[in-house]
Design a protein that fits this description.
The chain is an alpha/beta fold. About 40% of the residues lie in helices and about 20% in strands. Helix 3 packs across helix 4 (about 50-60).
């Protein structure tokens, strides 16, 4: 266990929420919920000591980006040192609610995945729902919001998401609920993608004819 993580837990138990970082098994299970086959923009709320962040950075492509939102100053400095040589990782010492601003100023339109280990259960209901709304709006159609929590109470508040699936993961201290909230593409998004696919096929056909 990281000595820094334990010290920060003792100082801010409600903010850090867990006395130990996530287990290797939990980290791998959470990462398995993401598709790393292409470039991705991923945000993580409350990365803490960085156990999930390191696994995500290890798996993601060279043209992907990972935004880490950490409120604790000491943990944020530790993350900056860990990822100082990786230009794909952006450490933000600040609130997760600043996600829309941080995406915009870096030229990103949306996130493909947003991961969270922050203790949503201690947030006041209006702040909780406001962050859920910002999270939903920041996701690309078809994107996912993935949380790991001791309780599964967030499910009753995250009604903005069209679909969710949960599992209770025992290979961690304490055991965790892993819940994936999906932002489903709208009919407009599906029509646009179909049109783009047709355009691509037409251009490819023209190119093939010219080379024949």
């Amino acid at each position: 266990m990281s000595a820094l993580f334990f010290k920060r837990f003792l100082k801010r138990p409600f903010q850090i929420a867990s006395i130990v970082p996530s287990s290797k098994a939990l980290v791998e299970r959470v990462a398995s919920k993401m598709n790393f086959s292409g470039p991705r923009v991923i945000a993580e709320y409350g990365p803490g000591e960085g156990v999930h962040s390191r696994e995500i950075a290890r798996r993601m492509t060279q043209d992907s980006h990972l935004l880490l939102f950490e409120l604790d100053a000491a943990l944020a400095r530790s993350l900056e040192r860990q990822f100082s040589g990786d230009p794909r990782v952006h450490v933000i010492h600040g609130d997760a609610a600043s996600l829309p601003y941080e995406l915009k100023r870096r030229g990103f339109i949306h996130c493909d995945y947003i991961l969270s280990g922050i203790p949503f259960s201690i947030l006041k209901i209006d702040r909780k729902r406001a962050l859920l709304r910002k999270t939903y709006d920041a996701l690309a159609p078809g994107g996912s919001f993935i949380i790991y929590q001791v309780t599964n109470e967030l499910k009753q508040h995250a009604t903005v998401f069209q679909h969710a699936e949960s599992e209770y993961f025992l290979q961690n201290i304490p055991p965790m609920f892993i819940t994936v909230f999906h932002k489903m593409p709208s009919p407009h998004d599906r029509d646009r993608r179909a049109a783009e696919s047709k355009d691509f096929s037409r251009l490819a056909s023209v190119g093939a004819d010219r080379s024949a």
